[in-house]
Amino acid sequence: MTYVVTDNCIGCKYTDCVSVCPVDCFYEGENMLVIDPDECIDCGVCEPECPADAIRADTEGGMEKWVAFNAKYAALWPVITEAKEPLPEADALDGQSDKLETLFSGKPAAEAA
């Protein structure tokens, strides 16, 4: 079993999950996070920390595409090990439908200046 980040993270990018992860398996894109399924130790401490309820166990139905999605972008994006402020529009976008099709950016997080 592993945990994955789903589309409700898009446009929100809360990082409460990052601060509790014991193995630093979160990776940061421009407007969302992903979990490296191969690095996740299945502890589950991140799931209840997500204010957007965007983290799911891969054992839930329909998670196969999210496992592949998380693996793909974890290989492309930089690791994130410390919590940051969420995106400015996070509260407004939390729960919006079709975010993968309309808002997702495959770009990695911008490097800190």
TrEMBL record:
Purpose of the protein: Ferredoxins are iron-sulfur proteins that transfer electrons in a wide variety of metabolic reactions.
Keywords: 3Fe-4S, 4Fe-4S, Electron transport, Iron, Iron-sulfur, Metal-binding, Repeat, Transport
Keyword check for 4Fe-4S: yes
Residue segments, region Disordered: 90-113
UniProt name for this protein: Ferredoxin
A matching Pfam family: Fer4_4
GO MF: 3 iron, 4 sulfur cluster binding; 4 iron, 4 sulfur cluster binding; electron transfer activity; metal ion binding
Organism: Thalassovita taeanensis
